[in-house]
């Protein structure tokens, strides 16, 4: 608000200065007009008084002149005209006949007639006027007395122009000032309009924003509007949280927002009964917004963790957040919710429900995998340590012995490399960033390695591990490490799920343009309802025979991903308690000839 | 039309096998609605084996999307072929759904 | 070298080493043989029990995780056999297992060594453990 006002002041100042200029101009022009009017009035007044003076003179002098003309006293009337001009302060005084001849004149040089004719020429009435008076001589005719007052009171022309100029200038100034003021004042007008809109209940504050062209005032106003909107949103949320809002006020902007969130949002009162919940929360809590209103939370989230969590919540006087997890729903996969709650200043509680089911599944699998992997890593590390220590402690042992020890170390290091590589592959596959590093892969050597790898574990369970390989296995293009990972997972499974004394047979042969690797075991087999699902990520059959065996649920999913990346696939056929046969198929891509 | 259901952890994947057209729509819709109810919305529709969707099919996808919208979710689709993507663009519905490259990335979106 | 505390001439002490990793059993066996022990090996718990019944043992070194009866199970059974009830057991574990004091007492496991471990350390522990048992016996 303060910022807005500060922006307003400079604008205000310019407005004020414009106003001052304008009012000065108006004042000046008013004064000028007034003066001009007064002058005109004075002029008119002097005209009027001059006219009255002339009337008076005409009356007195006129009679004398008529007698003089009747007596044919030319000198006499000339004298009278002179006296009248002098006395009446006339610029001109003369007697004129109907034919235009001048009998007497104050300006002696203008006299044209030397005698007064017996019969006076007629005078048209049109010749008479303001300064021309009729002289009537009975028996003789009429003559004209013409007088002109002094021109002293006449205003010079230049002053008249000055006044006219001031008047025009003032008008122009008024016009210009009003335009400027209107423009400068426009933002204020707009702001005033917007303010009245807000006061009369306009809700959409964004529509009241002003354009950039309104300059600093407009920007300040827009900022103010946004602050107001934020303030309103906060108020609304607080009032909802404290239960002051009517449940059916769904057209509120903030409620709309909360309502369309994919996390469950619940506001509860101080007795932990639901006052408001959004759509997602309604789903999680197994009801509808209406049916859940007023229900105690503990009834909807039935679990031991809930009870304890809610207790902690009511104890949390420091407004800290309480987080706990609880399971809801029935069905294939129970939903696990992470419940975060805290008390709200205005009273009651705000609760957030997040669906973390998939996260938990992924976590379990990851943990199992990490456990498995650490175990796998420690084994070769143990061996390396033992053999290296032996080499160090027995510096004088035989060459053959040392040689054997070093071979073991080497082999174990390779084993470590492979395990670490597999772990990276798994995390890449999980993250979806797995790419194949394509090279030539010599299949016979690949299978030799696998044989060596599994000889020990097979023997430990007394399982007969047989490799039945086509004599002419081609060299193919593929990612050796990933292929080994895939096949290892399948063979490893075969051994894992085959009881003592069983058999595992690995065969590899080309079929058309594909290579088909089959791993057949005499193990516990896969039940019909699980067979479609064994390749699903994280899937482990709900079969007690399976459940007690350690597994991540990732092995077959990984194998399938790797094979699909190579353009192939994996399938399985199985009979429970008899065994399973996994078929891995991928196209044979022969290496392109490389330039030497 | 065969419709395959697969579980990926806590997420149910539904793969209709074949074009999604009028006669198959009621079955499809019923199945998906049940899946949505059972998993509280953790579903993905895999359209990698669906070369074509007709107007009824689109209608049903929209209806399912609206069902989810009430609880703040969008319908997740994956594996769309060019034809189906174009159909969605032309009918201006592309933004109504969440589209993913494949099932794995769709499942990851639930984390 | 085993300590001589006087009395009867020194008899070779017998160790039983149980691990499903052949490299481990091989190496440990040769090491302890060099130290003057008699060593028997097994790659799973069942085989180990068989051997334990027939031979008098000074100590048992066993891995935790093995097929067909794991290390913990083996230790419990050894406790129950009269001939092996007092035989000290040293457990090797790759999974970082930690046993509670009660479990340790129940199973008679004297030490738990995480893998990878130092053979010299194991040697010291065995000698300590065997020396005690000789004195106790």
**Residue-averaged pLDDT of chain B:** 91
- Tally of strands of chain C: 5
CATH superfamily annotation of chain C: Response regulator
Rounded to an integer in angstroms, the radius of gyration calculated over CA atoms of chain C is 14 Å
CATH architecture title of chain B: 2-Layer Sandwich
The N- to C-terminal Cα distance of chain B equals 31 Å
CATH class of chain C: Alpha Beta
Task: Reconstruct the topology from this structure.
The complex is a heterotrimer of chains A (596), B (111) and C (137).
Chain A: H1 2-70, H2 74-87, E1 90-96, E2 102-105, E3 132-137, E4 141-149, H3 157-199, H4 215-241, H5 253-259, E5 264-268, E6 274-277, H6 279-284, H7 289-292, H8 297-300, H9 304-315, E7 322-328, E8 335-343, E9 349-355, H10 357-393, H11 399-431, E10 439-442, H12 443-460, E11 464-469, E12 475-478, H13 480-496, E13 503-511, E14 514-521, H14 528-531, H15 544-547, H16 555-565, E15 569-575, E16 579-587
Parallel strand pairs in A: 11-13
Antiparallel strand pairs in A: 1-2, 1-4, 3-4, 5-6, 5-9, 7-8, 8-9, 10-12, 13-14, 14-16, 15-16
Helix pairs in contact in A: 1-2, 1-3, 1-4, 10-11, 12-13, 13-16
Chain B: E1 2-8, E2 11-17, H1 25-39, E3 43-46, H2 55-69, E4 76-78, H3 82-90, E5 98-100, H4 103-108
Parallel strand pairs in B: 2-3, 3-4, 4-5
Antiparallel strand pairs in B: 1-2
Chain C: E1 14-18, H1 22-34, E2 38-42, H2 45-54, E3 59-63, H3 71-80, E4 89-93, H4 101-107, E5 109-114, H5 119-136
Parallel strand pairs in C: 1-2, 1-3, 3-4, 4-5
Helix pairs in contact in C: 2-3
């Amino acid at each position: 608000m303060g910022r807005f006002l500060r922006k307003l002041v400079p604008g205000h100042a310019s407005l004020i200065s414009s106003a001052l200029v304008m009012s000065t101009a108006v004042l000046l022009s008013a004064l000028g007009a007034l003066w001009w009017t007064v002058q005109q009035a004075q002029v008119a007044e002097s005209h009027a008084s001059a006219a009255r003076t002339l009337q008076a003179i005409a009356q007195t002098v006129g009679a004398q002149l008529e007698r003089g003309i009747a007596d044919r006293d030319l000198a006499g009337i000339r004298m009278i005209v002179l006296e009248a001009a002098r006395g009446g302060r006339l610029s001109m005084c003369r007697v004129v006949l109907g034919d235009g001849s001048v009998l007497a004149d104050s300006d002696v040089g203008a006299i044209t007639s030397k005698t007064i004719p017996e019969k006076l020429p007629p005078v048209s009435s049109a010749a008479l006027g303001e300064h021309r008076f009729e002289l009537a001589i009975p028996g003789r005719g009429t003559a004209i007395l013409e007088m002109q007052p002094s021109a002293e009171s006449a205003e010079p022309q230049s002053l008249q122009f000055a006044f006219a100029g001031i008047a025009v200038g003032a008008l122009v100034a008024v016009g210009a000032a009003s335009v400027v003021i209107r423009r400068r004042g426009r933002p204020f007008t707009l702001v005033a309009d917007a303010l009245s809109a807000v006061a009369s209940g306009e809700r959409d504050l964004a529509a009241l924003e002003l354009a950039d062209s309104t300059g600093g005032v407009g920007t300040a106003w827009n900022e103010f509007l946004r602050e107001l909107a934020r303030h309103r949103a906060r108020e609304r949320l607080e009032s909802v949280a404290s239960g002051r809002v009517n449940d059916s006020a769904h057209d509120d902007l903030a409620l709309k927002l909360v309502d369309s969130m994919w996390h469950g949002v619940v506001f509860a009162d101080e007795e932990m009964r639901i006052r408001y919940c959004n759509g997602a929360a309604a789903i999680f809590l197994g009801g509808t917004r209406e049916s859940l209103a007023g229900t105690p939370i503990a009834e909807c989230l039935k679990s031991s963790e809930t009870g304890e969590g809610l207790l902690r919540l009511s104890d949390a006087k420091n407004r800290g957040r309480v987080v706990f997890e609880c399971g809801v729903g029935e069905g294939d996969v129970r939903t696990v919710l992470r419940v975060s709650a805290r008390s709200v200043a205005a009273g009651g509680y705000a609760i957030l429900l997040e669906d973390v089911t998939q996260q938990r599944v992924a976590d379990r699998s990851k943990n199992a995998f990490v456990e498995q992997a650490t175990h796998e890593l420690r084994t070769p590390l143990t061996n390396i340590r033992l053999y290296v220590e032996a080499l160090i402690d027995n510096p004088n042992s035989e060459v053959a012995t040392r040689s054997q020890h070093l071979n073991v170390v080497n082999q174990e290091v390779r084993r470590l490399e492979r395990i670490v590589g597999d772990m990276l592959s798994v995390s890449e596959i999980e993250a979806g960033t797995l790419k194949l590093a394509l090279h030539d892969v010599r299949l016979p050597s690949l299978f030799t390695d696998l044989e060596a790898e599994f000889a020990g574990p097979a023997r430990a369970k007394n399982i007969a591990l047989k490799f039945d390989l086509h004599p002419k296995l081609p060299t193919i293009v593929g990612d050796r490490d990933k292929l080994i990972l895939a096949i290892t997972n399948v063979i490893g499974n075969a051994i894992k799920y085959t009881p003592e004394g069983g058999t595992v047979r690995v065969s590899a042969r080309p079929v058309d343009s594909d290579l088909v690797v089959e791993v057949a075991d005499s193990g516990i087999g896969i039940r019909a309802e699980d067979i479609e699902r064994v390749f699903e990520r994280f899937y482990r059959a709900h079969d007690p025979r399976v459940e007690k065996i350690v597994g991540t649920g990732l092995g077959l999913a990984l194998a399938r991903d790797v094979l699909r990346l190579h353009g192939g696939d994996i399938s399985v056929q199985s009979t429970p308690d008899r065994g399973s046969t996994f078929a891995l198929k991928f196209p044979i891509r022969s290496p392109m000839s490389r330039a030497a | 039309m065969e419709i395959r259901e697969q579980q990926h952890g806590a997420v149910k994947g539904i793969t209709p096998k074949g074009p999604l057209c009028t006669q198959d729509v009621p079955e499809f819709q019923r199945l998906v609605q049940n899946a949505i109810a059972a998993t509280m919305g953790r579903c993905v529709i895999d359209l990698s084996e669906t070369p074509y969707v007709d107007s009824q099919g689109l209608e049903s996808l929209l209806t399912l999307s609206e069902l989810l919208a009430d609880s703040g979710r969008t319908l997740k689709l994956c594996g769309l072929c060019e034809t189906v993507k174009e159909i969605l663009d032309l009918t201006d519905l592309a933004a109504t759904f969440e589209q993913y490259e494949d099932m794995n990335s769709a499942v990851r979106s639930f984390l | 070298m085993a300590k001589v505390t006087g009395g009867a001439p020194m008899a070779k002490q017998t160790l039983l080493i149980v691990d499903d990793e052949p490299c481990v059993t091989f190496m440990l066996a040769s090491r302890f043989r060099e130290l003057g022990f008699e060593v028997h090996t097994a790659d799973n718990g069942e085989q180990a029990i068989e051997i334990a019944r027939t031979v008098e043992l000074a100590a048992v070194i066993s891995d935790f995780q093995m097929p067909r009866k794991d290390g913990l199970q083996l230790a419990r059974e050894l406790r129950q056999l009269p001939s092996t009830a007092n035989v000290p057991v040293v457990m090797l574990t790759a999974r970082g297992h930690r046993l509670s004091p009660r479990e340790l007492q129940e199973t008679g496991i004297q030490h738990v060594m995480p893998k990878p471990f130092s053979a010299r350390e194991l040697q010291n522990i065995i000698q300590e453990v065997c020396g005690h048992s000789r004195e106790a016996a």
